[in-house]
Records
---
Amino acid sequence: MQSDFVERPNGTRDYVGCELTRKRAVEDRLIREFELWGYQSVETPLFEYAETIARGLHRDEDERLLRLFDREGRTIALRPEMTTPVARVATTLLASETLPFRLCYCAETYSGRSGQIQGPVEVTQAGVELIGDSGPDADAEIIALMVSGLRAVGLTEFRFALGHMGFVQALFSVLAPALRSRLRRALIAKDLVAYDTILASAAETLPADWFGALQLMPRIRGGVDAIAQARSIAFVEAAQQACNEWQELLTALSEHGVADVVHLDLGLCLDHEYYTGITIEGYADALGQPIAFGGRYDALLAQFGSPAAATGCVVHVERVLAALNESWCGDPVRRLYYHAETRKMALAVGRALRRLGHRVAVAGLAQEQGAEESVSANTETQTHRSDSFALLATDGTVTASDEDFAAVCREIVRVMEQGSDQ
Amino acid sequence: MLTIALAKGRILDSTAQALANAGYPVPAELAESRRLILEDVSRDVRYLLAKPVDVPAYVEHGAADLGIVGKDVLYEKRADVHELLDLGFGVCRLVVAGWPHTDVAAVKRVATKYPRFTTDYFRRLGLQIEVIDLQGSVELAPLIGLADCIVDLVETGRTLAENGLAPLAELGTVSARLVANRRSYQLRASEVDAFVEALRQRAGGAAS
């Protein structure tokens, strides 16, 4: 029987070599793009007090926290998402920063049980939060920045669906509170059959036009035409207001030059209590699951004692990687072998190669498994590794798997010997 | 091209019938062939034939854009997909069954293929029970004393009766559902909506 200690906990994974190189490249390019747009990087602890996290969470999600105790016995929890910790930080910055201010991060998040098929426990979220601007321009900036970030990492086929919590709430305002919450749960579960059934059970208590509007609402997706449809069922002021915001948002996004990768989804409801306005969900053509989530959460900072408008969006780095489906591996590792007599020279050549930007491992020929066979065969295809190699022989000559690498090594040896002669 | 995962077995014939009525006749070789992928080039649709319990995974991961599968499977699998339409066929009752006169409020161990439905039902009754998760011939469990009762799908009730068991309570009914992958629902909205509309009209027509 396999012992636990050689396995990883369920839902986690290891990254080694090329895969990690690609993951870091995605993270670095996203953060670089965020910083280019004037966002300051933030890092917060891996865990927070459970009460802190509860300020931002929906009740049901509470159950998915990975909890532990600190030395005083207080319950702490691994952060399940970054928006709440960043909001906590933002409230401390409100006194010193001029509004609005911009924060970004790339960090691991944890949830115990996602309720989905074999969901991962550990998710890397790269995100941006714009604090202190309540207008659609801020939402537009967040979306345009995410589009720009995804393009910077090389993703080409993707879209963002935009919802509005204000619109959903306005249409639900005619309903009894218990019914509202059941319908909201159905929208979050994306279960239109349950939504229709719950709605039908309340049909006789509703005016016919409201009933029709509520039936239609979660099915409307599209561009400017969807706003027109939304207006036709926006019976209350708050719903019209949401339509105006959508309109302004789309105009601003077209001025950002990214209107072609967004559409509205009137029924979009995300699984977080804190969203108050525009909601965002992003999808890549190459992946079945959404890759980005976000929206406006004007009420969250008040939970930490300092009310301020805020909007933001995150991408799940692992899903972006899966959507990219790339196989590149960064620069190849070269190997430089020495005999006991040529070790000093080899170490010096190694340092010089690294200064030139080559990745190079320096090793004794006799100590490295299979190295002697590789060198005697002297063909790259027969080496025990796919890396190229060079051997510094006792007589000072260089044998290498490829002529370019040999030439670079010989040149370095020549320059160093000249230097030591003088 | 839309890829649609169909559940083999119990609901496959009704599924093919419903698709045909909606203007998407499934290629004739469906019944006899052992092929797992069937294409209908003229309508730009491709069908995957999968084991029912696997349909939610195909759709959640986007290997299929749409899927047709029973609510029983869908609920148990907790798949993160859009549930778009109750297709109205493949209707079965989900019942608690056991020896006649078994007191449902006093059971301790329940055998079932549907642990989530079962746990939820007994929790609503305020009962914490032990679920024995079986894959088939669930009726065997009360016969040999492995469980006090079972929770299972019942179409005619014949298997129960032949083994001397009786339905004790009904949890609800399940039927076939049309589900969509989350990406496809957004990125192929017009194709998905057209397909949903075609099936909805058929479903409406069948009901009236």
---
Amino acid sequence: MTGVRVLVGTRKGAFVLTSDGSRRDWEISGPHFPGWEIYHVKGSPADPDRIYASQSGGWFGQLIQRSDDGGRTWNPVGNEFVYEGDVGTHQFFDGTAVPWKFTRVWHLEPSLHDPDTIFAGVEDAALFRSGDGGATWQELPALRGHGTGPSWQPGAGGMCLHTILLDPRDDAHITTAISAAGSFRTDDGGKTWRAINRGLRSDGIPDPDAEVGHCVHHLAMHPTRPDTLFMQKHWDVMRSDDGGENWREISGNLPTDFGFVVEVHAHEPETIYVVPITSDYLHVPFDGKLRVYRSRTGGDEWEPLTRGLPQEHCYVNVLRDAMAVDTLDDCGVYFGTTGGQVYGSPDAGETWAPIVRDLPSVLSVEVQTLP
Amino acid sequence: MTAPTTHTIRIVLPAHLRVLGRVDGEVVLRVDSPVTQRSVLDALEARHPVLRGTIREHGTLRRRAFVRFFACERDLSHEPPDDPLPDAVVTGAEPLLVVGAMAGG
């Protein structure tokens, strides 16, 4: 019987939640790496036993852990992330120029085809690649060297590269997003990059429709439609149908269009999910109600999904990498909260139930659908 | 030319690094003279490569900001890395303590 494995990164370790295809009963293992911040855990699409985890902490820095047996055992691999060439500067919060400095890995994106190839999005914003299972890492420096790099500045969480989308049609085509610079795309495997932010409007920057400077929170893409991208920006939910060349707003009837996550249904490329958060100064669900909003029309028209989710006195957040879907026929949807709950829906969002309630604050949720 | 003297050095790691290095109790290393922060940490990282980057930064080999080195009830964190460590550490009477700095309340 097929099953699912939910990979949860938290402020104090990683957890692996496993169930069969019914997704009623769950086995929970962890904490793995207790006491460490686990920004992201993700499995290889090419080998479900291969899983990578980003382990970091303020005292002892960054480690990358790798499992070759589906998360039962782990071994540290390479943790040396060195910027290529001239480090240069970017803007700090106060507008001063500061040198790029590696802090942590926010996001790990394994290759669609090769378990030993993996990309890492890091703070300060840069993209790294490993071709040897994480043993060594090399920067793709042209992104950081984009002509606008010196003007990038951190979002509230740091200047992080948090989204890496790989195009199933073409390994050379990679889309990334950086807070707070915006979205960038390469069509030549990282040799050159273009800012793809036309149509974004951000009132928090001096020129609201500038080429860069937008606080993109997350991007999502359905693998069968790589040219259609969905974006949860700081404010605004956006959509592009030309690979990011042009964006239009699809916030429609959302109660608020601030938020962090956006995800696409596994089998319906026009069905998307967001979790509206009150505002940039109040990172809690609108009106104290934890509601996932679903659009079955690719945006603009949204419906609240509430069955099984707390509808009063709920003041948690759902961070940018903390929602994922499985690929079973009825598409399970999962998300984690800063309150330590991981909710799952086995029916595309119609009903929800907590898989686990009292984990440390959840930073990321990924799902593997097991054969 | 005389051969360098080799010393037995004791190191106490913080809990997180003991887990990473799969170490129980103290780490005991043989280190040639002169015994300094740098030579001890070089030997530690050679024995336990997983600790590279966790105590000192990659590349610069500077102490990470929230790591401290204590010995003989003294804070050696700000001493030059090539200065000799106290005699009691060199003789093995006292361990070199690698400590995660206190932070928060």
---
Amino acid sequence: MAKPDYLHFFVDPNRCIGCQACLQACTECDTHRGESMIHLEYVDRSESVQTVPVVCMHCEQPTCAEVCPADAIKRTADGVVQSARKPRCIACGNCVMACPFGVPELYEDRKIMMKCDMCYDRTSVGKKPMCATVCPSQALFFGTREQIEQLRPMSTPINTFQFGAQTITTQVHVMVPRALATRASYVDVAAAMEERPRSRAVSLKVLSGPQADGVPSETDPFAGVEV
Amino acid sequence: MAEVPVDPIRIIERFGPHLSWMTGARLSTSVDPDRLVKTHCCFCGQQCGIQLKVRGNEVIGFEPWEEFPFNRGMLCPKGVKRYLQGSHTDRLTSALQRDRSSPSGFSSLPYADAIARVASEIARIQQAHGAGAIAVLSGASLTTEKAYLMGKFARVCLKTPFIDYNGRLCMVSAGAANKKAFGIDRTTNPWSDMVGSDVIWVAGSNVAECSPITTNYIWQAREQGAKVIVQDPRITPVARTCDLYLPVKPGRDAALFAGVLQIMIERDWLDHEFIRDYTSGFDQVAEYCREWTLSRTADVTGVPQPAIAQAAEWWGTAKTSFLFHARGIEHHSNGVQNSLATINLVLASGRIGKPKSGYGTIVGQANGQGGREHGQKCDQLPGWRDITNPEHRRYIAGVWGIDEQELPGPGVDAYELFRKIDRGEIKGLLSICFNPKVSLPDNGFVTRCLDKLEFYAAIDFFLNDTAWHDDVVLPGSLQEEDEGTVTQVEGRIIKINKAVDCPGEARQDWRIIQDIAQALGRPTGFTFTEPREIFDELRIASKGGVADYSGVTYEKVTQQLGVFWPCYSEDPKTGQPTEHQGTPRLFERGSYNPVAKGNGPFYFPDGRARFNVADYRAPVDDASEDYPIYLTTGRVVSQFLSGTQTRRIGPLVRQYAEPRIEMHPRLAAKLGIADGEWATAETRRGTITLRAQVVTTIRPDTIFIPYHWPGRKSANQLTVAAQDPISKSPQYKVCGCRVRKAEGAPPYAAILEPQQ
């Protein structure tokens, strides 16, 4: 069995509410029960409740596999990048250092790298991954392109990421506000990292109303509140 | 006297809360379940469909249930890990009695002896002090069958008027407002109606943490063009990206709604035709709103003028809309007025009783809806009937086979019940599904009252903090050990299915109640052999009432994946038997209901909805010179209510282990408190020392403390017992407080685990 090629994984951090249902459900998986392979990060909790769920992006040319000296990381024919294979993995951690998205983790106690495999035990038999099934905000969505187009008219799926000179194309798509996606068909990650930080790490789209270009404003809704 | 028998730390050592983790069959990837049981989550009022994996007599995991239409497989972290409450080391598997000679303060006794003891104590107290010296406290996480039985048991078996339930801490303000405005108390539309609305207004509801599944409906509505307005003192996850955030000062909601309605009146953003044909009382409301000018509204509420004007414009000019609220505006001494004020906005817009246009209050507990319809409230009889209405009394007395004269009159609300204990009027208490020592405000007072009881027995599956005061504990059932129905947030009746048997000597709750009735020598009416029989009697008892379940059967619920009440066995118009499918949407134009009899869509004889003057009153014990900061309380996503269940589930505790005091960096800087440092908050009732969480996502004049923990970590040591005069809802969401940097860690930090 293989993951049906018309079903895709979409991540929309804009929808994420940080509830961790994905992490909790990931630990129920039949292949790595008790461990979550998905990460959920606060961008900066002191400034915002914004959280970002991170699954394996399942790169077309996985950097993790390319740097693996033991050839332990395999990509299936249907494009799913697997956890390291047990007899081969030497727990060197190269993949952990190399992954541009920060996904693989080394389990020192077991001397092996494990990571999200898009719930291959589920997706290869036509089910949705556990995290995308339970996600109450559907920040994690698994379905067809037609479904995502119909359900998310405000954003566009993007699966090309620029890290300096390296272009990475992934199986997993990230939903980008449509207004921003018209400027470029890829996300320039390195450039974004060098962007001058805003006065607030995460902006609040509040009193000033929606912005034309999709860039949120930085109005402090509590500016007038006396302490 | 029902005092805690030994040092609480000894009780905690034996009875927890300890943490359960995935072990054994739950961790193994080579163990398959014997079967999957389609049922629902045991926690909040969303009642998400879920399949429990069962092996032998143990729930070993879950599988999403994607066919159930409300959540289609979605779950929050509580739903995912709810199965870990089963096979728990803290689980009560035998009856207990207070025993000071036992290190843990309690010793086991045979179930039959425990029942005999409870019955003889009830009989003794009632003989000496009258039937009303015994009170019953029950809860809205019980199935509707059990909730119905508790009301019947109190009135028919114990013959006491004193029964009330923990919904008093939950939705009563919304319920009372719905009754006054619509004549019926239910969310008007299925949630799917939200998608396609022009505007969604979320008033006082931390949707992402308290009703997570609703988030997807809101986000989907926004994808389809809805503007989202969020009114909250905190920038909650749904507020973060909303289109308009109204940073309201705690306790000022009625003023905000009046100000918005005033702008709608000034700009003539009203549905005159709807107001004329389907409502009454608009003129008095308009008269009241006149004093709520934009500048005054902004001054009182703390919401900037442009934001109020923007909200009024979006709401006023929308073609379709959905407004919902939750405890944020309801948990107030002015909670009914706050709720009525939202309804006024809805009625003035005319956007109700139509596809894509609705109003609702988000149910908090599993059966927050069904649990408030069938008679465990102090003033209510089944079918949402009124215990003071002679016709209603006669009907229910007939169903119960008693003389109407024997049926007690109205009792008192749950908090007043404690005041009666304090005054010595109530001497014995039987409780189920209620942990008032953690959940009631000013819980130091509640603890003193518990100490005064001559006799206290609780039915529970874990020894919760209140049950430490018990003379006898009867081991009850977890949700997955019984079957029955609950009614979820949309008014949809759904079926809870049994997955496993009760362990040891534990019993299904309704059997325990019937065993007590039997032991009291008053078994008549308490000889049901399965929940279905209770439900069938409830169908008759509810027939003809506003909450009419007469056409609902277990089969129909299962086949249709839920039935929206009212669901009639006889057509209310013709009186002929009917195969009614239920009522997903209320108040549709031209709809017929048994109260209005064709005069209109609302549940009053004239068929009209009521505008009610929704008066703003400042909170009781408001912020003042001595207590200058607002304290507000609420939930976190991984915990539920008093934590009796969720503080025993390891992965949920790890997610958020201990309460923190959330405060803005400007306030923290003024007080000299850094993130993670110990801080002490103090109100007129008590103090609490917790670590500070310094975040910009809360009003700088307000602190927030989640309420799921007991003892010295309990937020309700601080809250005020002021109650709404109509609904008797406590004012959990605001009181004046002061905060200082703590001298050091509190003594509990070295003794207790985070969840304890």
---
Amino acid sequence: MTTLKRLIKRKVVIFSVAIIGIIVSSAIFAPLIAPFAPETQFREGLTLEGSPLGPNSKFILGTDLLGRDLLSRLIYGARTSLLIGLLANGVAVLIGTFFGIIAGFLQGRIGSAIMRFTDLMMAFPALLLAITLSAIFSPSLFIVALVIAMVNWVQIARVVYTQTLSISEKEFIEASRSLGATNTRILRCHILPHLAPFILVWSTLGISTTVLLEATLSYLGIGVRPPTPSWGNIIFENQTYFQTAPWLVFLPGLAIVMFALSFNFLGDALRDELDPTQRGREN
Amino acid sequence: MKNYVIKRIGHSAIILLGISFITFLLLYILPADPVRQIAGRSATPETIANIRRELGLDQPLFAQYWHYISQLAQGDLGRSYLQKTEVTLLIQSRLTPTLILMISAIFLELLFGLTAGIFASVKRGKNADKSIMIASFIGVSSPQFIVAILVLYIFAVKLHWFPIGGYGTFHNLVLPAMTLGILGSGWYSRVMRSSMLDVLRNDYIRTARAKGVSEGRVIFIHAFRNAILPIVAMIGIDIGVFMGGVVVVESVFGWPGIGQLAWQAIQRVDIPIIMGVTLVSAIAIVIGNLIADLITPFVDPRIRIRQ
Amino acid sequence: MNSHPFLSVSDVTKTFQENSGKNKIKAVDGVSFNLDQGETLGIVGETGSGKSTLGRLILNLLEPTSGTVTFNSKNLSSLSTKEMRTSRREMQMIFQDPFSSLDPRMTVGDLIREPLDIHKIKSKQDRHELVQSTAKSVGLPTNSLDRYPHEFSGGQRQRIAIARAIITNPKLIVADEPVSALDVSIQSQILNLLLELQRKLELTYIFISHDLSVVQHIADKIMVLYLGKVVEFGTNLEIFNNPHHPYTKALISAVPKINPHDRTDRIVLLGDIPSTTSKPPGCHFNPRCHLAMDMCRVVEPALLAIKSDPGHQVSCHLFVDESFTQ
């Protein structure tokens, strides 16, 4: 596929794929790479006053407020973020695409009803909604991912709706109908293949939004709860030490930014390749 | 045209009603029991039952909702469970700081974003363009709290140029506004850049240059006026998004706005406040979208004629 | 005339509603005709004449608001969805725009094979052979099947569309302006292909066009439409040698003629075609007709056959004395 070749030539894509590769490997091989278990608290991990240690020979990046190895927690944190990112985004894309296609293809009353509903959901202050939902339901990785999906599916639905609408109006769809194609066939063989690139782009961009939302929720203390490490909750736990041990805040922060950045770069590059008229536009 | 405006406003009203209901529903099915929070640990079952009855929480869902809506129609957002003050008053007192922050933030977002976008479009393909775009991407990919903490660390803790949070003077405003300004400018710069590129490609720009119009005029008067159109709509949406997401920055900088109010309320399960803030934010989003929808025809004569 | 004509369109009307019922557009207004197997009917009209809508009504891609379309003794509106789908094997459409009527993401082979897949004709292996032979019969080069539509020229894309249309061995083909989007030099190639296929496969054509010179080349019978109504109907010979309706005459005068002796003065029509939402009262053509009488502005003329030739019908007050009711 020449698209792939063109993609690979871009420097940002190489950068993004490299970062994503590092993160994914950390996530998958965490037990092999991490020097320690992320939840073990070491007595020698704290100073005599009980503050975290800076980087030293045993703990390469230092320790956190409970004497746990920061590097190990960061590596396992990749696992958390990736898991939630994929799960939340996957669910959001699934729900969004489902409703978007139905609304765009069937149109009529069902279509309007679905679109009115997305109008409603879009008027919800997203972060507030996520915070409220997280506060309501018991904290678990799964619930956090679900909450994020609930907030994110709407935008995907709207994009898929617009696309499905415009594809449905094209003459080759009418041509297939005149041949006698059933709706199922038209959806499967004509509409979905045309939607596929969009879904791919939005999935990639969506992972970045998802990760940012999860980090924010964890930072507020209502996302992934400790001791399970998440880059967001590492910052949450250690923010009181940020003047004396700023790396406890900035290293996970850097990880978050790198993660989101690489998916954003990749998604944007994909969008450029698949639809040159959309360059640089948002929403 | 008037019909359209009326239809849109009606539409928005229905959306607000829908939001109020869904929020009410969500809070109704909370596993956390607000009554226990209020009563405290050592309350007897009698006290709890009394409080529940007092607050009307023993009524069925629709009765509670109906009561809420009828109060709302009179401008009454209820009373905070824990603070014994009217929600309306609480929100009013917090609204001003948030609005100040919002206006300053959007001003800075536009200042940085539009300048960067125009500059990048003019220097297209060169290093300046690439660096600006990368910076924009970083802005878009960073969560608010990280930038907030970073800004706080560098300018307040290390350099002591500004106070560490608080409210009251211009100095307090700078850091939170800068944080939001830098982050938000990422969106604007990208849209501005692509919009400028689209406009600069047009024949009328070529004509202007051929007529001998100075490049400065071409860019800032001819191109800018047309490229700014999508930005206008974005500002409307930005207002809405801002209200929803301001919790983080207000928390980090101790800014006493409605975001902070909402956060405290959520932690204490103070339902009336949560409802109130959600509604106010939703109103802001709806108004923001409405403004974006209604202003665009004014700014873009092509759409106006079609109407 | 056959007692059971191959295709019978009877008083078909199609009204569209815009703006949730506020604007009613009568795109097709009371059109009737019969067609025998193997014949070619040319439907001629300009923008707003309803000819494309009529084409879709004939194939039941749109449901008529009133009236019936009977094909092969079956009333199309009365068929169930499943029966209709099966009937589609026998009636196909060729669209005007060879750029947008082919799915750009499918290969030519997939496109031509699609009708076979839809109707589950032949086994999967045999389909490939049939696709190849059909592609050959429309003049596509042998290696086309793995390529994509955008790699081909307009004329070749229409050949692909034609291949798609004939592969299920249909009896009726409705071609909606099939050559209008092509260069003039390619037009005759495609027209000749269509004629050749008609001979080989015993096809019946309905050929829709705004271009009378094209229709002259290919049609046995010609129907002229104006704002949804039939203004004249007759054989190719009759229409061109003995046109009656002022609109028909104007259209014919605009056809470029090579022989200088054939050239006559062009009849220039006044004004523009009115919008379909506000049709003029009486005879819809009256504002532009240089022969319009007072009656034309008030009363709609009926479609009546002329005395000298019952197969030739006109809808015009000028000829009422000459005609008798059908």
